[in-house]
Amino acid sequence: MCVEPSHHDGDEPWYEEALVPVEGRLFPPRFRIxxxxxxxKVEMCVAVAIEQGGFTEPENAISVTGVFSGxxxxxxxxxxxxxxxxxxxxxxxxxxxxxxxxxxKWVVAGWSPGIPMLTGSTDRDQIVLLKELRRRCGPNWWxxxxxxxxxxxxxxxxxxxxxxxxxxxxxxxCPTTHVRRTQAYADLKVAREIGLLPPLExxxxx
Length: 206
Prior knowledge:
Blueprint: E1 2-5, E2 20-22, E3 25-27, E4 30-37, E5 42-51, E6 54-56, E7 62-65, H1 70-90, E8 97-100, E9 103-106, H2 114-119, H3 124-137, H4 140-158, H5 165-177, H6 181-193
Antiparallel strand pairs: 1-4, 2-3, 4-5, 5-6, 5-7, 8-9
């Protein structure tokens, strides 16, 4: 699979937006990519939007060429959402986007997500990122994970100011959200990332 930037008329305002953090990486709030497979001759253009830490696609945002029936196109779209899109995002080079004074621009011409997987050169950080982006591209992000993260943020906001983070997590967050401490800390990190809580250095809960 190969991935390239895609540019469409009408997307110009997108390039004026500031990059946003997602799991330690910076992405534009809205962008398009082309994904194509040399073996199957299937090509997709995917429009992506980032909202509350999750990746969404506007209606009819995945156009498919190389297959002809509607059923086949739906299968390709489902595969793209489940694996191809998260894989493309997780394997983006670090310098894919450049923040500019009044927006951002593409820096790379393209990349091949499958090569690290085939050669076994995918590092642990990329694997962790891929798993997280699969979560953020899936429907459970909106129905399960984000509501829990929002609840975690509410609990931390309302916690006594003199409590440590560990105490808040152990005594309040875990019993309320029914997750283990590792997940609770991960949810807290995302809550800060998407702006539900102030950055760590600004918060009163240390």
